[in-house]
Design brief:
By secondary structure, the chain is an all-alpha fold. Helices cover about 75% and strands about 0% of the residues.
């Protein structure tokens, strides 16, 4: 587990950066695989039941791709925050982000309270 003091250690920050970068690389690989699958899903299907299944699969894959793009952007943002020296601090209120949260979600740039408020704002804006 990361402590508040260890988050600031250069060696720990390097390990965190490597972890974030590896997570981003995995997402990029998944996105490329998904793109390949989407191309094959768009092939012509004659049967109505198969067509309905295919439309459902394409919709799911499109939503998954959107989630991958969002997660990749958050990882890139977390690396930028880390490089700027702000890793471990909430970008909204400035409070320390809990070690448990950073251990579970190293791409976090907001404390749990501020992340909840941001999610709520985003939900209201989209709905």
């Amino acid at each position: 587990m990361l402590s508040a003091r260890s988050v600031r250690a250069d060696g720990d920050l390097l390990q965190i950066r490597l972890r974030l970068t590896a997570m981003a690389e995995v997402l990029e690989e998944r996105r490329h695989a998904l793109d390949s699958n989407l191309e094959s899903m768009r092939e012509e299907v004659l049967d109505e039941l198969d067509r309905a299944q295919r439309v459902s699969e394409v919709n799911f894959a499109t939503a998954l791709e959107s989630a991958i793009v969002d997660a990749s952007a958050q990882l890139a943002h977390a690396v930028a925050v880390l490089d700027a020296g702000g890793y471990g601090r909430c970008e909204d209120c400035g409070a320390r982000i809990s070690a448990a949260r950073l251990s579970f979600r190293p791409e976090s740039t907001r404390c749990l309270t501020c992340q909840g408020m941001a999610d709520s704002r985003r939900s209201r804006a989209s709905g």
